[in-house]
Amino acid sequence: MPTPLKVHTIAVNSRAAKRLRGGHPWVYRSDLSEKTAGAIPAASLVHVTDERGKLLGSALASSSSQIALRMISEQAIEDEQLPQLVRERIAKAAAYRTKFVRESDAYRVVFSEADELPGTVVDRYNDVFTLQVLTQAMDRDDLRTSVVDALIEQFGKKINVVERSEPRIRQLEELPALESRALHGKKTSTTFAMNGLTFEFDAVSGQKSGAFLDQRENYAAAASYAHGEALDVFCYQGGFALHLARVCEKVTGVDSSRAALEVADQNATRNAGSFKSGEIEWIEANAFDLLRDYSAEGKQYDTIVLDPPAFAKSKRALSTAMRGYKELNLRALKMLRPGGILVTNSCSHHVSESDFCEMLTGAAVDANRRVKILEKRSQSKDHPVVATIPETGYLKCFVCYVD
Ligand code: SAH
Questions:
Q1: Pairing assessment for the beta strands 55-61 and 45-49 based on DSSP bridges
Q2: pTM higher than 0.90, yes or no?
Q3: Which regions of the chain carry the CATH code 2.30.130.10?
Q4: Which residue, by CA, sits nearest to atom 15 of ligand 1?
Q5: Domain spanning 8-77 has what CATH number?
Q6: Residue 235 annotated as catalytic
Q7: For 101-132, what is each residue's pLDDT tens digit?
Q8: Per-residue pLDDT tens for 71-107?
Q9: Residue ID of nearest Cα to ligand 1 atom 11
Q10: 93 in Cβ contact with 117 (< 8 Å)
Q11: Ligand 1 within 6 A of CB of 217
Q12: Are 163 and 180 in contact (CB under 8 A)?
């Protein structure tokens, strides 16, 4: 019998204890004394107590992240119980998706803290599952194996599991470099279905791959209001554009990435049979320049989607980000015909729903358009927003009617 690993007990300050009791799973390095922080082995399981020694639960430690501990259980569990706990968490996460995912064989199966499995993200694209390991602890071989075993247990032996290496995160977590690779099965590319459309997926191709699964329900919502001539700005591989093509006469997708547009075009060919007119064009351009030029030329649309990348990567970047959102929304509002539909998104966690609303109000005033908010939407339900963990919610998607 191997000797069980000794589990360290870590006392956190009252601020951290209050946060943990409030259902938030993080202990920051600044919540620990230097001596305490220094004594925690990297990637280990620890027991967490308050200053008086009262148990708060068990956590996984990182020696490099500002988030020193991420809670994984309210109990004092032992190291050898971890693989079983991982399997239980994955079973629970999969059961939740069975309840809420409709019209798709592509969705997020495990969403890290939102599924009580910090540092683990699993996405399903039909028969290809991708695993992203985001913390030191989840990079442990035994835990990686238990994730793969649990996925096979839930979804059957025929699935393929590919680990997608995240070089930036591995560097931050001081983990050795790793190539993306197959962990189970051989297949790394496939096609998947979403709202009746088919998309291509390649887990290991050079370009950034993968779909924005968090937008799945918003694609369908956008299509339920869209009409006429549509412009999808920041279209990537055509998520919104292809949904719009089923109900619009003409669709133009704009993105600065040629590689993304090539996949968008392949996706369009694959789905041609389900389009209203099939008139789709892809334009490689900087969205800011293109919107400026188009609005100066007096171009008009009936439906415009704006889905830019996260402009506010930190709180400090917020005011610059808000200016960016406002410029895009202002130009889009000016270009919409009366009765037009604006689908406007922000995927920055640091931009709150009220910040976003305020930005839209400002743009409506400046454009002198009356904007009726039809729906204030968020991310698809397979990216659950946990009430006690605000960081799990990041996507805003407003669908607006513009007089
Ligand atoms: N709407 C897409 C996701 C958009 S992600 C979907 O649902 O799938 C953001 C996209 O913005 C990326 O494809 C990126 O290439 C593109 N992008 C980033 N900066 C840009 C810019 N200045 N102009 C045009 N596209 C840009």
A1: antiparallel
A2: yes
A3: 8-77
A4: 257
A5: 2.30.130.10
A6: no
A7: 999 999 999 999 999 999 999 999 999 999 99
A8: 999 999 999 999 999 999 999 999 999 999 999 999 9
A9: 234
A10: yes
A11: no
A12: yes
